[in-house]
Amino acid sequence: MQFSLNAEDTLLVDSVRGQFQELFPFSAVQQFADQLEIEDARHEVAADIGIYGVCAGESAGGLDLGALEALLVTLEAGRNLVPLPVSEMIAATAALSQSHVDLTGQLIKGRLSATVTWYDCVVATQTSDGWSLSGLLDAVPWAAQSDYLLLPARPSQDGCARDAFLVRLDDPSVELISNRGLDLTCPVARVRINSLLVRESDRLSGAATRLRNLVAICCAAEMLGAAERAFEMTVAYLKVRRQFGQVIGSFQSLKHIAANDMASIESMRVAIQYAGWALDTAADDAEMAVAIAMSFISGSARTVIENCIQLHGGIAYTWKFGLHLFYRRILRCAVTAGSVELHREAIASLLIDSVIDSGYSEG
Predict the structure, then answer these.
(1) Would strands 154-155 and 122-126 be described as parallel, antiparallel, or unpaired?
(2) How far apart are CA 343 and CA 349, in angstroms?
(3) Between 104 and 28, where is the model more confident?
(4) Is the residue at 363 inside a domain?
(5) How many other C-beta atoms can be found within 10 angstroms of the C-beta atom of residue 59?
(6) I want to staple 115 with a disulfide (CB 3.0 to 4.6 A). Which of 59, 75, 88, 311 is the partner?
(7) Structural domain of residue 340, as residue ranges?
(8) What is the pTM of this model?
(9) Are residues 129 and 189 in the same domain?
(10) In sequence order, what DSSP letters do the residues of 213-231 get, joined into one string?
């Protein structure tokens, strides 16, 4: 078991980071936050470098890499606050590449777009022609800008508890209400589905768990990337800001805060890299590792960014400085793939199940 990056992974990180820094300088991110519009050219270039197909099969034009490489890409998206559905497209193409080859190819090339949702708020009822979907989804990222939505569903009867469904968002049975969410770099929409008929071929049997796990670690990676970048900005500020005739980075109390944050960032990195490795190797504790990483990073990343705001003092509260955009990205990602409470509940359930399976009996 090795968690250090190999030469190929390091090359991937350097390439993606360089492209994101060139495509999305902080001024472009701030402009998007004001206008909620991104130039098609930036979207096309992002597609050209292959980031959307990191986990998709080669037959569909993807790179056929694993969850570990996906989280490396989305971590860089979080560092640069990339205003594109990077995590959503990676998860969608990974799920669709075996059953919907042509569509996946179009998504990877950026000619079509797709988003995903983690929550199973839609009910699926089997019909003679396929499935009927109904339900309401709140705050689906990039829904109004996407052509397709991939979602898990709750069954009205046995048969699709672990399945995901592909939905066309321009269908008359789908109603979209765009909202301006907390994260100004990610537009969201309410999606209401009213008795939408879905063909059997658009049901991805057994794909819900894999989809949700991949979405979770991608969101966790975005949180880590945003926290890491904000921390680097803060350390740089501590080295130049002077107070009482001294550089404030020399104050012992501020050093302690920065040291704790650095330790938290490295702990988050280990947690998510293990989760990625567990998914790629189909380890027995893969679901546990994802739940631990998501719940841990949700809390720790928020602590780090709040400390960064505090250490910047009054300048951090100014709109133009932009530190609030990192805070918003972390807060949004913390609920996009399930709240801390949901993941802790999953951890508890998995632990209880493991105890029962081991044959433990009290007394």
Answers:
(1) parallel
(2) 10
(3) 104
(4) no
(5) 12
(6) 88
(7) 208-357
(8) 0.94
(9) yes
(10) HHHHHHHHHHHHHHHHHHH
